TrEMBL record:
Keyword Flavoprotein included in the entry's annotation: yes
GO CC annotation terms, alphabetical: mitochondrion
Pathway membership, UniProt: Polyol metabolism; glycerol degradation
Protein name per its UniProtKB record: Glycerol-3-phosphate dehydrogenase, mitochondrial
């Protein structure tokens, strides 16, 4: 078996003598102009058979079944797999890709959302004089610049602050960050800079002031990872790739080589997960790009092959946007256990993570309570005591599995390869494993180079450097203004559509329904506090969304942003999909249940809801218990010891507050621990105790009852009869 640990060494003119001689600004402009000209020439050569309209999933499945033989079949629809498909199809190779779940359903949608070279890797490279690690950072910085250029609607530079609390660390960290800029060369996004304590607190007012001596700000990239993955896959479809999600590989096909007499991998037996239909896909070359599931596909080729994947779980949490500035991230370079924690604004919320712990391979990783609390504790260490970091503020949490790999050529077989590995088995199966999100394109290029060489394929040179991805063409920073003016969308919705779909945002706007209001004219929101609209569900189906989970997790990012909001939007999402896809009642019910299970287990809803079920103790003082019992009895007028939706409805109507019965049922259900349709006094005290300790925040029932009590106290005793029952 041939293994190679690949690392492309690209000569890049950066700073130093060359930059000084030509003049840095002239050099940068020259390189940019030369790059733009090569991009135009490359794209002019490419034909996009589906430039105007994407083929349906059924058409893609038909292409997989009826094509006599593909040049390349890629297994895996994550960032690397989609990148391999795009690289192959743009080299004029007949290309197929199958993914057993949805595009980006695994690791690629559960990242830190950064496009970066790796500051910590550069630190190790310098401290350990590790040239390979240095080159890995250099390559990643080149790829960072390319990704920001080819998908400007989905990515942008992000300033990240590194707070400094010891004077001696200021020059140390400054030198390291400046080296990061230097290694980036002409691909440096913006020059890093030092801030005084006063300026640091102006930029990041939530920061802990005590012992702060200053801060250093550097720049990396940030993106919408699942949408970026999808953009790569859809771009491959535009150029003629036969690509299908929910299509799993049952086993590999093999044929005997007439010259050598050895068996060669010649395709795969596939199954449509939705219909159960099985079929063969023939290909000259099969590429295994399945991330954490790398070894399961390798063992389809040879049961005796050794494992190379060492999965590691990384947990992230989402907390409200007020925890960080709108456009400034934070890096904790040395946590209590030596790990690095990022604290980043994203989609108007704040992401904090990640952890790093060994795990088993699973398609449904679950964020653990210990990891969530570890991240919260680290966040507390860096934020001002004025900011109470509460467990109840966690809006969502997820775990992603990093497919770290061991190098079989290493004397120590347990050593982790810090880059990626391309392997070609004796039967010709090409495997790409390891690596990072940022370098997906260069990994794909190296994989295809190896595949073409080993299988004798006739192909053109790689064309993916500078190749604009789905939605990039036609996008401008002011595109959202046209959406507002031409379609009557809310500004926030228009900005969201432009940042999510780029030039394709107009297609989504055209599908939007009239609201019947004076403003906005079109664009009904799925949930009030987020800019996602109903027409996005219809467009998601065109983008090969097959389940409600696809919509809440990867076409929109609602499930990653706020699990409760996603749960509230689910019934309408399922209703729209059921009508469009002609689902039976049985399928509709199953979809709703599956999506709720996904939110409950994989997106942290369970951890959020269990803050009440786990809180058996009621930690309230005597006065608090008296106050909360008094509040409870304003609703429990008959002193039964419990309240129902009817009781709450009567009190609300008495103060002229009207809430839909279904919405009220959901509000009580959040607190109803034993699920008997009523809230006992102990459950209410348990809720208020959890609110006090920060385990629960934004409890709708707690806020509702407090507001109602205050209104009643101001008005004095008013009977339901006198108030007219709110009618």
């Amino acid at each position: 078996m041939a293994f190679r640990k690949t690392l492309k060494r690209t000569a890049i003119i950066g700073g130093g003598a060359a930059a000084t001689f030509f003049g840095l600004s002239q050099l940068i402009e020259y390189r940019k102009m030369k790059t733009r000209m090569s991009h135009v020439a490359a794209e002019a050569e490419l034909k996009a058979p589906f430039a105007h309209e994407l083929p349906s999933r059924q058409a893609q499945l038909a292409a997989l079944q009826t094509t006599e033989e593909f040049d390349v079949l890629v297994i895996g629809g994550g960032a690397t797999g989609a990148g391999c498909a795009l690289d192959a199809v743009t080299r004029n190779l007949k290309t197929a890709l199958v993914e057993r779940n949805d595009f980006s359903a695994g690791t690629s949608s559960r990242s830190t959302k950064l496009i970066h070279g790796g500051v910590r890797y550069l630190q190790k490279a310098i401290m350990q004089l590790d040239y390979e690690q240095y080159m890995m950072v250099k390559e990643a910085l080149h790829e960072r610049a390319n990704l920001l250029e080819i998908a400007p609607h989905l990515s942008a530079p992000l300033p990240i602050m590194l707070p400094v609390y010891k004077w001696w660390q200021l020059p140390y960290y400054w030198a390291g960050i400046k080296m990061y800029d230097l290694v980036a060369g002409i691909h440096c996004l913006k020059s890093s800079y030092v801030l005084t304590k006063t300026k640091a607190l102006e930029h990041f007012p939530m920061l802990k002031k005590d012992k702060l001596v200053g801060a250093i700000v550097y720049y990396d990239g940030q993106h919408n990872d699942a949408r970026m993955n999808l953009a790569i896959a859809l771009s491959a479809v535009r150029y003629g790739g036969a690509i299908a999600n929910y299509t799993e590989v049952v086993h590999l096909l093999k044929t005997k080589d007439e010259e050598t007499g050895k068996e060669r991998v010649s395709g795969a037996r596939c199954r449509d997960v939705i219909t159960g239909n099985e079929f063969d896909v023939r290909a000259k070359c099969v590429i295994n790009a399945t991330g954490p599931f790398t070894d399961s596909v390798r063992k389809m080729d040879n049961q005796e092959t050794m494992n190379i994947c060492q999965p590691s779980a990384g947990v992230h949490i989402v907390i409200p946007g007020y925890y960080s500035p709108d456009n400034m991230g934070l890096l904790d370079p040395a946590t209590s256990d030596g790990r690095v924690i990022f604290f980043l604004p994203w989609e108007k919320v704040t992401i904090a993570g990640t952890t790093d712990s060994p795990t088993s391979v699973t398609a449904h990783p679950i964020p653990g309570e210990d990891d969530i609390n570890f991240i919260l504790n680290e966040v507390r260490n860096y934020l001002s005591p004025d900011v109470e970091v509460r467990r109840g503020d966690v809006l969502a949490a997820w775990s992603g599995i990093r497919p770290l790999v061991t190098d079989p050529n290493s004397k120590d077989t347990q050593s982790i390869c810090r880059n990626h590995i391309v392997s070609i088995s004796d039967s010709g199966l090409v495997t790409i494993a390891g690596g990072k999100w940022t370098t997906y394109r260069s990994m794909a290029e190296e994989t295809l180079d190896a595949a073409i060489k080993s299988h004798g394929l006739s192909a053109e040179p790689c064309k993916t450097v500078g190749l604009m991805l789905e939605g990039a063409k036609g996008w401008t920073p002011t595109l959202y203004i046209r959406l507002v003016q031409d379609y009557g969308l809310e500004q926030e919705v228009a900005q969201h559509l432009a940042a999510t779909y780029g030039g394709k945002a107009f297609d989504v706007a055209k599908m939007a329904q009239v609201t019947g209001q004076r403003w906005p004219i079109v664009g009904k929101r799925l949930v009030s506090e987020f800019p996602y609209i109903e027409s996005e569900v219809l467009y998601a189906i065109k983008e090969y969304a097959c389940t409600a989970i696809d919509v809440i997790a990867r076409r929109t990012r609602l499930g990653f942003l706020n699990v409760q909001a996603a749960d509230e939007a689910l019934p309408r999402i399922v209703q729209i999909m059921a009508k469009e896809l002609s689902w039976s009642q049985e399928r509709t019910t199953a979809e709703l249940e599956a999506a709720k299970k996904f939110l409950y287990q994989e997106m942290g809803y369970r951890s959020r809801s269990e803050q009440l079920t786990r809180t058996s103790e009621i930690n309230l003082d005597y006065q608090e218990v008296v106050r909360y019992k008094k509040r409870f009895h304003k609703f429990d007028k008959e002193s039964r010891g419990f309240i129902t939706t009817v009781d709450v409805q009567q009190v609300l109507e008495s103060i002229n507050v009207h809430i839909d019965e279904n919405a009220l049922h959901e509000i009580l259900n959040e607190v109803d621990v034993n699920k008997n349709g009523q809230i006992e006094i102990d459950e209410f005290l348990q809720l208020m105790s959890a609110v006090k300790k920060g385990q629960v925040s934004d409890s709708r029932l707690a806020i509702l009852m407090k507001t109602a009590e205050e209104t009643l106290d101001k008005r004095g005793p008013v009977s339901v009869d006198r108030s007219g029952g709110g009618v």
